[in-house]
Amino acid sequence: PTGNIVIDDDILVYYGAADKVCCVATINLDELLGELLRYSTL
Questions:
Q1: What would the pLDDT profile of 19-34 be if each residue is shown by its tens digit?
Q2: Where are the domains of the chain?
Q3: Sign of CA dihedral 9, 39, 2, 20
Q4: Are residues 14 and 26 in contact, defined by beta-carbon separation less than 8 angstroms?
């Protein structure tokens, strides 16, 4: 299973690992956008 949820200023990314467990990664939305813009080639 995979999916994304935005709660307040954070994005939670759910993903499966080794077909046995579910994991979640979190990142602050402003931090993510800053990194995307920093390495953008546009």
A1: 899 999 999 999 999 9
A2: 3-38
A3: negative
A4: no
